[in-house]
Write a sequence for this structure.
């Protein structure tokens, strides 16, 4: 057997290790179900070296003997003092790499000596060399250093044939970069890259921290000097949790009990933050990243219309505003079905397997093939429309998935709301397929704008659970739709598609949807037409027989299939309705 080469994403905030085993990519668990090793090294009270979670935990108490974000210093002659000794950035990174090597060895039950390690595309030769040195110090021969966007592209497209232009948008905890990558068969090339070494999810946290501090000052007249590093560390923890919660929920609480004392009175932090207000805070950061994306595109001599894919990398890309703004800007759906924290390590492992000549399958993730959502009175094509589709779980999202949105009652004293549940992609909910509905009754008599929180939660078995809660009272109504994913057998799905196609003119179905389903579609159409023959009158039966023959001939001899399909589906649609 060829020698195993592990893949390592040596990140600024977190690092990960992945392997390829029996052709399958596997990111290795570090600790208690987490796959992320915080890239933090520290010295404990007893002089022991701490790595990862334990080092991160002592940061608030002992910042002077804890090292974070060492990646920013790679390749420089910066020295880090820890206890009696001073260390180079490569040595600190080696401590992190060594830990990852040990995790891989424990998992595999064998020694591991080689690794592919990823670095940002903008890393200089000196920074790459320092990364190689770190590997060697950790006892790893660095089989290859690859760019992070290259690794992400490999994770998504390891078995891709043909050419594709990909935007890899990477927003981590403390760094942002966007690269334009060209994939040509199995060659991946970074055409251009741009970014900001000091922009990421930590800045989002900081905005929330500033907001919380302002609230404490305004509400309780707390003075600046009361915000000691320990107090700030606690607010930071609450801010990050709230930020993460807001990625799937419209409101979050910032809660830290017994945060401060003023005149012997205990002050708790308890502050609600809405996603709307949070998004306003971070919009300037997102604007910056979009400008960088345009600069990278210019550097690659491409325009948005040349792009085939946008891949989201880095934990902070889970912020919904990131994908929304990118989709608006580029006009392409973003892809994040491979965990954005883990896809770079997965790509590194794939590169490792390729170097050792091992077979690799694509990274497998469970995704939903459909979008699920509800309808609301909202703008559709410039007009207020009562059945505007509001998707909550989008097609191609990794499952399990859970998302909550807030809706507002449009009328004063409204006591009931009908909640409709749809599966589909159309902006007008009525053109999607309704898969369930319920009514919330007995709402409080409130002015218009009463907040209703609706949650969609889809599990691995395709069970969709939908609930709505009046925020003010907590009153809740819910429904479970047992096989939301499987419930459409192909035939029903094709019928729904045909119906929508007819309503909108067939050209409105996307090219992708058409080609994906074409073969199945033809077969189902023929079966449908044949089943209709029995109950039809003579003329209709003749038309059906003609239509079926024409389509079969076209399929067998490569004739005008589109025309035959269109004629037969018109007929089937007409007879069915
Ligand atoms: P990375 O450096 O790629 O590990 O990304 C870490 C950053 O992602 C941190 O700022 C995290 O707080 C942030 N992050 C992780 N999960 C989420 C989430 N669900 N929503 C928003 N930000 C997140």
């Amino acid at each position: 057997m060829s020698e195993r080469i592990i893949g390592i994403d040596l990140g600024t905030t977190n690092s990960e290790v992945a392997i390829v085993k029996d052709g399958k990519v596997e990111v290795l668990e570090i600790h208690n179900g987490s796959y992320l090793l915080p890239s933090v090294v520290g010295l404990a009270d007893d002089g022991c070296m701490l790595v990862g979670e334990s080092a991160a935990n002592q940061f608030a108490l002992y910042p002077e003997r804890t090292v974070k974000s060492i990646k920013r210093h790679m390749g420089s002659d910066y020295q880090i003092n820890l206890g009696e000794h001073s260390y180079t950035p490569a040595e600190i990174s080696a401590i992190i790499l060594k830990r990852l090597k040990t995790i891989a060895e424990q998992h595999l039950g064998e020694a591991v000596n080689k690794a592919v390690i990823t670095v940002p595309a903008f890393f200089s030769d000196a920074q790459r060399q320092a990364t190689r040195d770190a590997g060697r110090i950790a006892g790893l021969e660095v089989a290859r250093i690859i760019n992070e966007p290259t690794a992400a592209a490999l994770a998504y497209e390891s078995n891709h044939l043909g050419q594709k232009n990909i935007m890899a948008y990477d927003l981590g905890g403390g760094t942002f970069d966007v690269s334009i990558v060209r994939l040509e068969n199995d060659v991946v090339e970074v055409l251009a890259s741009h970014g900001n070494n000091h922009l990421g999810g930590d800045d989002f946290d900081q905005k929330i921290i500033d907001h919380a501090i302002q609230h404490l000052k305004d509400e309780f007249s707390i003075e600046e000097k009361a915000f000691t590093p320990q107090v700030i560390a606690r607010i930071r923890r609450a801010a990050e949790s709230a930020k993460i919660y807001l990625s799937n929920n419209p409101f979050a609480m910032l809660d830290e009990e017994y945060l401060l004392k003023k005149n012997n009175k205990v002050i708790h932090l308890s502050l609600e933050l809405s996603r709307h207000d949070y998004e306003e805070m971070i919009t300037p950061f997102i604007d910056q990243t979009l400008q960088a994306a345009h600069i990278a595109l210019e550097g690659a001599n491409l325009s948005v219309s040349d792009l085939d894919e946008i891949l989201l990398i880095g934990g902070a890309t889970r912020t919904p505003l990131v994908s929304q703004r990118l989709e608006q800007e580029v006009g392409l759906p973003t892809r994040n079905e491979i965990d954005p924290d883990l896809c770079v390590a997965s790509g590194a492992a794939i590169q490792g397997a390729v170097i050792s000549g091992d077979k690799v399958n694509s990274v497998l993730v469970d995704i939903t093939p459909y979008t699920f959502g509800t309808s609301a009175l909202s703008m559709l094509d410039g007009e207020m429309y009562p059945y505007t589709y509001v998707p909550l779980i989008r097609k191609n999202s990794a499952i399990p998935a859970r998302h909550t949105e807030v809706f507002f009652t449009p009328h004063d004293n409204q006591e009931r709301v009908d909640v409709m549940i749809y599966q589909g992609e159309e902006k007008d909910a009525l053109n999607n397929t309704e898969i369930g509905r319920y009514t919330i009754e007995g709402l409080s008599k409130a002015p218009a704008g009463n907040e209703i929180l609706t949650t969609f939660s889809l599990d691995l078995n395709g069970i969709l659970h939908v609930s709505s809660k009046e925020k003010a009272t907590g009153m809740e109504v819910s429904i479970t739709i047992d096989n939301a994913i499987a419930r459409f057998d192909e035939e029903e799905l094709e019928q729904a598609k045909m119906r929508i196609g007819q309503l909108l003119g067939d050209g409105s179905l996307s090219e992708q949807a058409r080609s994906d389903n074409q073969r199945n579609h033809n077969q189902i159409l023929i079966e449908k037409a044949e089943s209709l023959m029995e109950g039809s009158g003579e003329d209709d039966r003749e038309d059906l027989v003609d239509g079926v023959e024409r389509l079969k001939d076209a399929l067998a001899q490569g004739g005008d299939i589109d025309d035959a399909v269109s004629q037969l589906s018109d007929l089937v649609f007409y007879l069915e309705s």
